[in-house]
Amino acid sequence: MCGIFGIWEHPDAAALTSLGIHALQHRGQAAAGIASFDDAFHLERHASLVGDNFTKPEVIARLSGRRAVGHVRYPTHGSAALERNIQPLFAELSGGGFVVVHNGNLTNAALLRNKLQKEGSIFQSDSDTEVILHLTALSQQEKLVDRLVDALGQVEGAYALVCLSTKKMIGCRDPLGVRPLLLGDLDGSPIITAETCALDIVGAKFVRDIAPGEMVVVTEAGVESIFPFPKVRSRFCIFEYVYFARPDSVVEGRGVYEIRKRIGRELAMRHPAIADVVVPVPDSGVPAAIGYAEAAKLPYELGIIRNHYVGRTFIEPEQSIRDMGVKLKHNVNRSVVAGKRVVLVDDSIVRGTTSLKIVKMLREAGASEVHFRVASPAISNSCFYGVDTPEQEKLMAAQMPEHKMAERIGVDSLGFVSLDGLYRAVGEPWRGSGRKVQFCDACFTGEYPTPLTDRSLLSKELPA
Ligand code: SF4
């Protein structure tokens, strides 16, 4: 889950890229980077939020040129601490410099890296994205686009990429289209990015989604589209609609906010509760809670307030201070919940630790009952496509049945949206109605749409 943005031929390319990745900050807070090109490549990468460095005039001034790409990083592969893993990644290929930003995760990167290292490749980072650079460098094809196609033909998993060479900007989505990628336009300057909210911030217009398996090549001659990979049924990540994408984005032609409200309505129908008030866990539970409250004809209240200033760099207080009840991120709005039967709505349960804390806070604030409603099906499998879920052993839903989860979290009732309810909310017929699967829903079903090569090698030695 990262955010990517690229813009071609605009006098304020770096400043606009900074705004674009700022709009995508929800997709990654660990690091941010921008590369630009005039007659040379310029690269700035920082382990911080976009606003910490990329609002500084001297930083933007160093990123000269009319072409730029940017990235916000949420590490799913490669050490979070390693500065060299911060994207954009740059390589000097035969034929010129080449920059890549990647949203997604490759599922055979360890195998490929091992093979490349044995053949003499020297890696600079432990990011899976670097494998794409090496494979491109080693390709025997002549043209850059063909070399990249050659490289991507060897990788498995999920990727949405924006690349910048001395003569081209290239956007590419894996054949399954797991992660979003779209084409925009700002007064004739093409933009390639992950979500429409990144177009809105710079006043660009949406042109179209980049299709699964499509490669869009932007040059001085214009925008060209090619489909270099065999066509397969697409499997867009359904969890983008539940959690990752910003609610004001339109993703794959669907408004995220409306979908989340429809999920809330599905929840209200399937898991009604006799209650006094519907309270979201902010921010991601808000639209589903609104949908639930509307359908259940219950009042909607902000019973939990989120502190938006808990940055990545905030130092967690010591255990002794935490034990005093210090609440960094959420606090209960006591007057809303005291003495009330509360329907609490959140987007998902992963480890269950946050849910447990929030329910405890509600109880301490005097809620008489807590009915927990979850806007996704139970997550019982890890994601290998760019989302930082823990190993399966740490997923609460993989460890115990629903009634035990309710007991552990300390709620009076617990209800998840069903998989068919989620598909209905997204506006697609459910997979169970005789149709082929249209989305990746592997974290709920365990049905992964690609081989998990690296995982199957985990217990074995990599080939000598
Ligand atoms: Fe999305 Fe879940 Fe598939 Fe990962 S496993 S891509 S989070 S649906």
Which value, in Å, is the CA radius of gyration?
23 Å
CATH superfamily of the largest domain: Aminohydrolase, N-terminal nucleophile (Ntn) domain
CATH fold type of the largest domain: Glutamine Phosphoribosylpyrophosphate, subunit 1, domain 1
Structural class: alpha+beta
Helix content: 25-40%
How large is the share of residues in beta strands? 15-25%
Bound molecules: iron/sulfur cluster
Global shape: globular
The major pleated sheet works out as: 7 strands, antiparallel
Averaged pLDDT: 93
- Strand arrangement, largest sheet? 3-2-4-1-10-9-11
Domain unit count: 2
Proper CATH architecture of the largest domain = 4-Layer Sandwich
**Terminal Cα span:** 32 Å
CATH class of the largest domain: Alpha Beta
Task: Describe the overall structure.
This protein is of the alpha+beta class and 464 residues long. The chain has two domains: 3-235, Glutamine Phosphoribosylpyrophosphate, subunit 1, domain 1; 258-306 and 325-427, Rossmann fold (3-Layer(aba) Sandwich). The chain is built from 18 helices and 23 strands. The strands form six sheets. Strands 3-2-4-1-10-9-11 form a seven-stranded antiparallel sheet, covered by helices on one side. Strand 7 and strand 8 form a beta hairpin. The protein is globular. The model has no long low-confidence stretch (mean pLDDT 93).
